[in-house]
Amino acid sequence: MHCQDICKRKKTNLCCHECPEADSCPDCCGDCPEECGRSMAEGAETNLVAFTQQHMTLFQEIRSLVLEKKAAEAREKNLKDELKAAMEAHGIRAIDNDILKITYVPETVTHTLDTAKIKRKYPGLAEECSKETPKSSYIKIEVKER
Predict the structure, then answer these.
(1) Residue 103 — φ and ψ, nearest 5°?
(2) Sign of CA dihedral 9, 13, 15, 19
């Protein structure tokens, strides 16, 4: 059994579950290989390399879009902060024109339930009131900032 992650100590992709030093290793993940989502059967690393090579253009395109999106979101936040400050300074609460409809929303306090505290103090009630919600599969992408 191999892992998609590389061991920091041994510099291999041997699954921690298969490693003879797992009991004494401070970096051992301890995850069950059938459930962790990072384990691969023998030969799968070859498939992973082939998959990576085959889809490298797609990876680069996604990375580029994610970085562009982050930059656009940062620019949007700065522009909104600037506009909010100007609206506050001039006492303007709303603008509705041919380009945008903008509403100033003043600072408020919200109240939410502390679900962790409820589960800790009232586990039976938390279990009784919890519900299962199916979620579709998805991929999570983290862009490495070189």
Answers:
(1) -120, 125
(2) negative
Q: Closest by alpha carbon to 3, among 35, 43, 33? A: 33
pLDDT per position as a tens digit, 56-91 = 899 999 999 999 999 999 999 999 999 999 999 999
Q: Which two tokens stand for residue 109?
A: 């306090």
- Give the global pTM: 0.59
Q: What is the DSSP string of the chain?
A: -EESSPPTTT-S-B-GGG-TTGGG-TT-----TTTSS-EE-TTHHHHHHHHHHHTHHHHHHHHHHHHHHHHHHHHHHHHHHHHHHHHHHHT--EEE-SS-EEE-----------HHHHHHH-HHHHHHH-----------------
61 token code pair: 């395109």
Return the closest-CA partner of residue 137 out of 9, 69, 10, 37: 37
The span from the CA of 53 to the CA of 14, in Å, is 22
Predicted pLDDT at 49? 72
